[in-house]
Amino acid sequence: MPSADYLGWIATGVFVLSYFCRSPAALRSLQMAGAVLWIAYGMIISASPVIVANILVFAAAAWSTVRMRRVHAGKEQLS
Q1: How confident is the model at residue 50 (pLDDT cuts 50, 70, 90)?
Q2: Integer Cα distance of 2 and 27 in angstroms
Q3: What residues contact residue 14 under an 8 Å CB cut-off, 6+ apart?
Q4: How far is CA 32 from the centre of its chain?
Q5: Which of 50, 46, 48 is nearest to 11 (CA)?
Q6: Full DSSP string of 6-75
Q7: What angle do CA 17, 21, 24 make, to 5 degrees?
Q8: Contacts of 9 (CB under 8 A, 6+ apart)
Q9: CB atoms within 10 A of CB 28
Q10: Which of 21, 43, 73, 79 could form a disulfide with 27 if both were Cys (CB 3.0 to 4.6 A apart)?
Q11: Which residues of 34-64 are buried (b: 16+ CB within 10 A; e: fewer)?
Q12: Cβ of 17: how many Cβ atoms within 10 Å?
């Protein structure tokens, strides 16, 4: 099995693992980690749709993480 396949399978495992997260923060962290793996995989196999789709997934998870931290920080300031 080519090494690119191993990377694809690891990315798949990380993606599936994210479905078992109870914490939204852990979910977003796994989404970002999986997206990075998929981006690397897409680059190895020269698949632009895989790269672009996972850049968008990473950006959405990162934006959501920043937004939730700001909301959480705002609630702490009100206390």
Answers
A1: very high
A2: 29
A3: 30, 33, 34, 37
A4: 2
A5: 50
A6: HHHHHHHHHHHHGGG--SHHHHHHHHHHHHHHHHHHHHHTT-HHHHHHHHHHHHHHHHHHHHHHHHHHHH
A7: 130
A8: none
A9: 19
A10: 21
A11: bbbbbbbbbeeeeeeebbeebeebbeebeeb
A12: 14
Q: Where are the domains of the chain?
A: 3-78
> How far is the C-alpha of 62 from the C-alpha of 55, rounded, in Å?
10
Q: What is the pTM of this model?
A: 0.85
Q: What is the pLDDT of residue 79?
A: 57
Is residue 7 within 8 A of residue 40, CB to CB? The reply is: yes
